[in-house]
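pasting for ref. prot 1 ->
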Amino acid sequence: MSGSRTGVQPMTADEALAWLRQVDGELYRTPRGGGARGAWVAVVRTPHGGARAPRWIVALGESLEEATMTAARQWREQLGAAGPLH
């Protein structure tokens, strides 16, 4: 994923998978059943920083790109809230 991405621009599938590998994230797809569309779930730990213990980010989407973009946005928000890393 390009360093210039702000979370507003779409992420390609390759970028999404690369970002998930970079942050040790996981990607899941719910089973389709009964005519329902499957959903994608991206799961990552919040960035390490400060005295706060890491938490989980669970982001849903209709595509792997959407789920990963949502997780990445929340991850960046948490990184900014953690303050400078020492």
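and prot 2 ->
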Amino acid sequence: MTNPQHDKPHVARIDMVEFYRRAFETAEEARAFVDQARAVPLEASPAKRMLNQAARMIWLGDQLHSVAASRPALQVLFYLIAAEASAKLLQGFRGEGDSKKHVRLFFEEICSDEHRAQLTSGFRLPGHVGAPPIRAVVDLLYDLRCDVAHEGRYFEFQMPDPDESSCITGVGDQIVTVRMTIDDLRQIVLEGAVRAVSRAMSV
């Protein structure tokens, strides 16, 4: 008799090559990246832990769409946890706190210039004419993460659907215009995590 629980997706059974495939041109490149990260001894580099931790947090964020559709703030929470964990592991941080500092580090220093430009063009914020600075966008996302984690406020924030160019939404007491989808943000975090793992392997 089969156990129906084994038929359900489970965070412990993520196919890492398939998961990271979207960050590479080919499946072969994704497999080589995963194999290389898995081969690095844990005592030599945090690469393997980063590979697993980022995948788990992003994957958990992905699952929320099926149980809380149109509530992207919940997914943002998990994607920012993945970003924070990647930065902390890369820096060898073993203390407590400093979450905002490491989320900033991830987006401002680990992610690519292209993704920083995508983030700044993806939001219009009060008090900024044109594209805001990357720090303002990262802090907005971090404020949203804190609203969800500390206040349980996940129902106000929206992001446009793929067939929409933008939407107007709230983050705390701010009204902002969002021009990127939740999948765009997910891809930025996924590729940023790959860059963090690659950097850890090159040290």
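Strands lie at 123-124, 167-171, 174-178.
The CA atoms of residues 81 and 165 lie 27 Å apart.
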